Amino acid sequence: MNNHKISGKQVISYTSFCLGNLGHAAFYGVMSTYFIIFITSAMFTGLDHSVADKLIGLITALMVLVRNCRVSN
Questions:
Q1: Per residue in 33-53, is it b (16+ CB within 10 Å) or e — as a string?
Q2: 18-62: per-residue pLDDT in tens?
Q3: Which of 7, 23, 34, 52 could be bridged to 47 by S-S, CB 3.0 to 4.6 A?
Q4: CB atoms within 10 A of CB 54
Q5: What is the DSSP string of 7-69?
Q6: Which pLDDT belongs to residue 31?
């Protein structure tokens, strides 16, 4: 077996990367949720509920598609 020693700087580096990645994911989740709520609440006021529901579904599906394309590249 390999006996690899991890230095204190490596532990700090790994921990910093982990916490930074977690913070970025949390921030992105909050901002994308806020964006969807903002768009759907302000953009479709005064429309029939069935039309508004279809448009909300369309925008949400497009955002998911764009996000998945971005992640896969």
A1: eeeeeeebeeebeeeeeeeee
A2: 999 999 889 988 888 888 778 777 777 888 888 888 888 888 888
A3: 52
A4: 13
A5: PHHHHHHHHHHHHHHHHHHHHHHHHHHHHHHHHHHHHTTTS-HHHHHHHHHHHHHHHHHHHHH
A6: 86
Question: How many Cα atoms within 13 Å fall on the side-chain side of residue 26?
Answer: 6
Phi, psi (deg, nearest 5) at residue 17: -60, -45
Does the pLDDT value for residue 1 go beyond 60? no
The answer to whether 36 and 60 have CB atoms below 8 angstroms apart is yes
pLDDT of 2 = 66
